[in-house]
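Narrative of activities, Objective 1.

The group set out to show that a structural description can be obtained from nothing but a protein's sequence at a throughput compatible with the screening campaign. Below is one input-output pair from the validation batch, recorded exactly as produced.
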Amino acid sequence: MERLRAFLLMILAKELKCMINKQKLYLLAFVSAAMVLLLMNITGAAPFAYITNQGSNSISVIDTTTNKITATIDGAVEGPGIAATQDGKKVYVANINNDTVSVIDTATNKITTTVPLGNETTQLVPYAIAVSPDGKKVYVANNGGGCVTRGGWTVSVIDTATNKVTDTIEVGAEPYGIAVSPDGKKIYVACYDNDGVDVIDTANNTITAAVDVGSFPKGVAVNPSGTKVYITNSHADQSTGTVSVIDTATNKVTANVLVGESPYGVVVTPDGTKVYVVNTGFYPNYKSTVSVINTKTNKIIATIPVGKEPNGVAVTPDGTKVYVVNSGGIYDMPSSVSVINTATNKVANNITVGSNPIAIGQFIGGNIQNDEVSGSNLGFH
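Output recorded for this entry:
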């Protein structure tokens, strides 16, 4: 944003220099007004967060600038898996009970397509979902509801141009989390009952490595450079948890970081310096927190209390805010989303959403920070 402002000021300065006679004053006024409008449009083009509410079969749409709910999408949307494209134009929702994926057009906040993953005799139980960086593929982790006989443990590959399943990849027991590398060449799948992570080559949709991590892994996140993968391990008694750090060059675990109780969702900031880990907590006390890891030292630099029984987490494209989904527990209402200021590592807002929200994936879309700024695409030559 600062680079853009500097560029616009430079253009304005050039116009001022050449407008030295009164005949061109009208053009100066026009250019000045255009600059102001452009800055207003860019500043207002913030991404949105999409939160699946399992208790009400709906999605709460949050404007991350105002932290206000701007829309509620009703219909056959269940989650928990949800992922937005990087341009923020589409959102994909894995529906756990009917083996489908809902496709949402964010311009209208309407479901445009429902993609079937299996058939009447194959119950896949889709759980987590991820979109390729170019938006051409969607990958769905099907955990079979913990039972391989219900349909197997697989990853469904959807072509977004046709909204059809083009491939099905068999993976380890009970895939819970899934993420795609920044270059789109690899998929990382956390297999809960396998205590491992399967690495898939997207060129041929085959497993190229299986990495042993901690017990009962759930969440997966890849850093922006694609050099590290972070896996949350909830462990058998759930009273402790760790994050395994995988070196993607060697597919080896290089560190195990002790975090809070029963960690679930995990996300890396866009600059790659911090990892935010959601600790769901353990019955009956539920010490629900977020652990913040310094990626250089693999040390905890902050522990942030949030709402009860959090599960999912996502970061805004500019890295200034982290959104944590708090289910509130089955009998505790209202549910909420905690908004963490990454500069202070404090909760800045709590937003009330629908019933029993469980949103697993990169549920924030609309990365205007990636747009290239040049004289040609702004209309200046």
